[in-house]
Write a structure and sequence with these properties.
- By secondary structure, the chain is α+β, with helices and mostly antiparallel strands.
- It folds into 2 domains: about 140 residues, no CATH class; about 140 residues, Gcn5-related N-acetyltransferase (GNAT) (Aminopeptidase, 3-Layer(aba) Sandwich), CATH 3.40.630.
- It is about 35% helix and about 25% strand.
- The protein is built from 8 helices and 12 strands.
- Strand 3 and strand 4 form a beta hairpin.
- Helix 1 runs antiparallel to helix 2, helix 3 packs parallel to helix 4 and helix 5 packs across helix 6.
- The radius of gyration is 20 Å and the shape is globular.
- The relative contact order is 0.16.
């Protein structure tokens, strides 16, 4: 089995793009992250003074904070890609469907790069194989941080009765609110606050990627979507402030962005849930989302 690794997003997509697009639902994270990087690389932002983290030309360079990509072939003479990974420095390594052997060999490959690996996001079997190999090589301890379920929209079912209010696209006037709610969302789900949510809000606003559910002229909930890639859109994050919950606003916001995705021609609409949250899992199934696969996020810590 052979792993090939690059920091160049265009090279990765040239080699692994067909494999990823063959199952856009299961590969939605890799497809959407690489699409964002590709868009940024096509429209680089000017840098004033010494470059700071995240200001390098996206998809290029060799620094330890650069996104890293890889694809796996069953043997050196094969043209068939049968697995891939994505690693951005602030997130766990994300694996597509992989065999245990491929995941084990990837741990060895990544160890030789000297990169800081905070964790792994994968299907249970490949996660176990990677964690075992990583622990053997580095001594790192691992624990389950989150168990997730991928859902794909079947037939959209709007909440009945619909809650009061209506959906509208977020605008620059909502920027401060989006930053505040994105910060709150990350704290609530227990993720480390590593991202610049101002940059996240700006990127989402650049392609109408955030929708506000508004009641009596005031925002009550928000739902985001990714860019469309390979006919696929992923919904998330969805956030409602605690004081406004249990009124159906999150379901309505999710239904609104799901309907907008279908109206825009998306063939595949997906979202992830935390399996520890029975409320959201039940809600999305009522809206017509159906389970596709389960994943586990494992966090690494140095041995004590």
């Amino acid at each position: 089995m052979v792993w090939s690794i690059t920091t160049v997003v265009e090279e990765f997509l040239a080699e692994a793009g067909e494999f990823l697009r063959a199952e856009p639902a299961r590969n939605s994270v890799v497809l959407t992250v690489t699409e964002n990087l590709r868009v940024k690389a096509a429209c680089p932002q000017p840098v004033v003074g010494p470059p700071q983290d995240g200001q390098h030309s996206p998809g290029h360079g060799t620094g330890p904070d650069r996104p890293l990509f890889g694809w796996w072939r069953p043997d050196a003479g094969s043209d068939q890609v049968a697995g891939a990974f994505l690693h951005t420095s602030e997130f766990p390594v994300f694996l597509t469907h992989l065999s245990r052997q491929a995941a084990t060999e990837l741990a060895a490959e990544l160890d030789t790069t000297g990169r800081i690996v905070l964790g792994i996001n994968a299907e249970q079997e490949s996660a176990e194989a990677f964690v075992s190999a990583w622990r053997h090589r580095t001594g790192a301890c691992a624990e389950a941080h989150r168990r997730m379920r991928l859902f794909r929209l079947g037939g959209l079912v709007w909440p009945d009765p619909r809650p009061e209010g209506s959906a509208r696209r977020a605008t620059e006037l909502d920027r401060d609110l989006l930053i505040e709610w994105l910060d709150a969302f990350v704290r609530e789900v227990g993720d480390p606050p590593r991202q610049d949510h101002g940059a996240v809000a700006d990127e989402r606003l650049s392609y109408d990627g955030m929708t506000v559910w508004e009641v009596d002229g005031a925002p009550a909930s928000v739902a985001g979507v990714t860019r469309t890639v390979a006919g696929m859109i992923r919904v998330g994050p969805v956030y409602t402030p605690p004081a406004l919950r249990r009124r159906g606003y999150a379901g309505a916001a999710t239904a609104a962005v799901s309907q907008a995705a279908l109206d825009a021609g998306a063939r595949v609409v997906v979202l992830y849930t935390d399996l520890a949250n029975p409320t959201s899992n039940a809600l999305y199934q009522r809206l017509g989302y159906r389970p596709v696969e389960d994943r586990v996020v494992m966090s690494f810590a140095a041995a004590t």
